[in-house]
Give the backbone structure.
Amino acid sequence: MNDTVDAQRSGAGPSGTVPRTGRPHVARFAKLRYDGARERHVLLGPETVVVLNPTGADILELCDGHHSVADIVDELGRRYDRVVDDEVTQFLARLAARRWVAIEEDTITDD
Amino acid sequence: MTDGPLGVLAELTHACPLACAYCSNPLELTKRSDELSTDDWRRVLDQAAELGVLQCHLSGGEPLLRRDVVDIAAHASGLGMYTNLVTSAIGLSRPRAEALREAGLDHVQVSIQADEAVLSDRLAGISSFDKKIEAARLVKELGWPLTLNVVLHRQNIDRIEAILGWVEELGADRVELANTQYYGWALRNRAALLPSREQLEHAEAVTRAARDRLRDRTDVIYVIPDYYSRYPKPCMGGWGSRQLVVGPEGDAWPCLAAHELPLPRANVQEHDLAWIWRSSPLFSAFRGTDWMPDPCASCERREVDLGGCRCQAFQLTGDMNRTDPVCVLSPDRHLVDEAVAAANADPASGAPTSPGPVREPVLVPVPALVSRPHRAD
């Protein structure tokens, strides 16, 4: 499991995947909030606005640096009662590639 | 859903300690005594939030020259806006910065004119380089994300590698390397500012390498000078489409340079922002594609570049309804070509010719350079 971790340190791996043990959090520069005017959650940066669909908003609300990618997949799978693996990982890979989301790895130990 | 603007650029004042020759402020600067009050700005921001504005850029001139900048930032932040300070960093003392942090300011953009003090201070018209570097460090120390804004032109573009060295050294999260846009002050000074093709090629190669090197740390944004493009930029993402500007005296504009255009004004002291955005003749003038003349009207790119920039059309041809002269399909393209030819004709008068990794600053004699005044009293 840990073999692939180094290559994926900054989030999105070569094939657009994200490490399942990684713990994503919204980038320090970004702000996630609900926008009443558009009736959508939005992710705000200095020059960009990302208008989120409801699933995207749910994923990002769990990106708190505590939940791992696997936790988020489990939690949303429960909530929606369907398999959400690809949806979650692809969404996170896209946002990580644009640095909206950072994915911290757990400390790797030798044992 | 709403068709409201995403962002408001609040030009709090035209006063500025700097005197850059490419300043985007109007040639006629607003007097300090004519500026909106704190309460006026609070009302404008309330109306902006109601319209759907999500980002507030506090700009100028130098916004830190407004004593109430902390109150205004706190108000924008309290409305849930992503609040951004666009500053020369002159006047960003530690207590001031801490107060802004406390007020909920989200992001700071610091302008950098060059990579070292002699050239930087000459371009800014004031000793400022060391203060900027110090302020940029303070921004990072207080935990803000930092953007460095660099306006590129003939006299600093060859320093881009060393400028990017500062980006790395200061740990900037973003850098905007934006070639000068030729309106107002910059248009007056165009001959001294427009880079040669060779300079641009060097800058673009350096930028590509830096983008690769800094990939997981810094967003490197590079804005080409549109004089060297085949097609115009979709200015402001379309007229009255995403952004609005409110000037120090309360005039609202669809873009920074639109104050030059012969259009009826719309002022927040006389009208509600919602009316200005949705119904004013000013904001309706070039919305969509119906206003377009040929070659735009029948062009398949009309939804891509939206006819380009109205201000550029006006400033170069005297007619704001014409196709942006930057477009190769424009009958006025020769106006741009002539400026480009001049910028490439005589390297000795401008840029050095041998691209190298790091160069000594070249102090170009610029008798024609007209500095904007430091202050608007």
Summary: Confidence is low (pLDDT under 50) at residues 1-15 of chain A.
